[in-house]
Write a structure and sequence with these properties.
Beta-Lactamase; single chain; 12 helices; Rossmann fold; 30% helix
């Protein structure tokens, strides 16, 4: 077996044209659109660089090496590659025939130092009151979904929230490609894998999830919910596995539940729609919605409670915090603040039964909320 250090140096050698961007902490994404066009994302904005590869074969060599590093195959029969680089960056590539002008590559980089609440508060993504509320929700073992669009910061926020789990608890992290890094002394990472070129040995997230339930988890963290495993996750949530967390792609809190529902229906279990909705409404406690604003900044836009399913079969939601937008400043930056709505969650008695309570500021917002006449 080739030593990891050799793989690392060889791969970085093939990626030399973009090496300086891989080493630049201000760059969050590198996009290679064929050998002659390289874009980067910096501070939420795209920039065309002067970097280029000598020809298509130079890009192919880098991709083949990346595929070998993670034990995958890249060729005309397997033209899509999802991999990670030695530093943990996520790589997604497409080659002909699915990318006629390819190869096309996107490298998503993750901050080595990770997010913290101080940084989120300084950037305006959170307020101290919202941060304190999230700390309570995690400690109370509520089931949380973090939802947002591509590049909105879902995984980074998941890392931060999972790191709030008390040290005495055992966390199992399930992912397609390793991106979640939890700062906790007792974490077990499980990673799915695709079948080999002969179709042997695939291990799906669903397989990992079912195995994890027999591994004495206190918390189960799903890097990204993408398919039929959604049903397993929801059923775990309603059967006593509190404190589950995961991410998925959705734009608004209500869309998050609809998308979770759609993915659950992709499973091989026949379940009436109303029964599925009842389980989702019972199992998911809170949605933390994140978004990427027009100025490129990443913000938490909602902290929303899933209350229940109405008699009409509609999800009943209650916003606990919402982002108040106030226009643009002179530099074109979005002016906004995440503010409490003045609503108290229905799970408040459950918090108090665990010896926990919401921050004082949440109650103050209830007192200051305008009264209806």
């Amino acid at each position: 077996m080739i030593p990891r250090e050799v793989f690392t140096e060889t791969l970085l050698g093939f990626l030399e044209p973009v090496r300086k961007y891989l080493d630049d902490p201000s760059v969050s994404e590198i996009m290679i659109n064929g050998p002659g066009q390289v874009y980067i994302e910096r501070n939420g904005r795209l920039e065309l660089t002067r970097a280029s590869f000598s020809n298509k074969e130079a890009v192919f060599c880098a991709l083949r090496n990346a595929a070998q590093f993670v034990g995958k195959t890249l060729d005309e029969q397997h033209p899509l590659l999802e991999a990670r680089l030695p530093d943990g960056s996520r790589l997604q590539a497409a080659i002909p025939p699915v990318a006629p002008d390819g190869p096309c590559v996107s490298i998503r980089r993750f901050l080595k130092q990770g997010l913290d609440f101080d940084g989120l508060i300084a950037s305006g993504s959170l307020t101290p009151l919202a941060a304190d509320t999230l700390r309570v929700l995690v400690r109370a073992r509520l089931n949380l979904l973090i939802a947002g669009g591509t590049g909105s910061g879902k995984t980074s926020l998941l890392n931060l929230l999972a790191g709030l789990v008390p040290e005495g608890e055992r966390i199992l992290v399930l992912e397609d490609s390793k991106e979640v890094v939890v700062k906790s002394p007792h974490v077990v990472y499980l990673e799915a894998r695709a079948a080999d070129p002969d179709g042997r040995g695939p291990v799906s997230i669903r397989d990992l999830f079912r195995a994890s339930l027999r591994m004495r988890p206190d918390r189960i963290v799903i890097g990204e919910i993408r398919g039929g495993e959604a049903l397993d996750i929801v059923q775990a949530m309603v059967s006593g596995h509190g404190g589950c967390m995961g991410t998925l792609h959705a734009t608004y809190p209500r869309d998050t539940l609809t998308r979770l529902e759609t993915m659950a229906l992709m499973s091989d279990v026949e379940l009436p729609l109303i029964a599925l909705r009842l389980q989702i409404a019972s199992g998911v406690n809170v949605i933390v919605q994140v978004s990427r604003e027009g100025d490129g900044s990443r913000k938490i836009s909602h902290i929303t409670e899933v209350v229940e399913l109405s008699e009409a079969g509609r999800y009943e939601l209650q916003d606990l915090f919402v982002r108040d937008y106030r226009g643009l400043d002179a530099r074109g930056s979005v002016l906004s603040e995440l503010v409490p709505t003045g609503h108290l969650p229905t799970f408040l008695p459950a918090l108090k039964s665990r010896g926990l309570d919401l921050p004082r500021g949440v109650y103050d917002a209830v007192q200051s909320k305008p009264r209806r006449s």
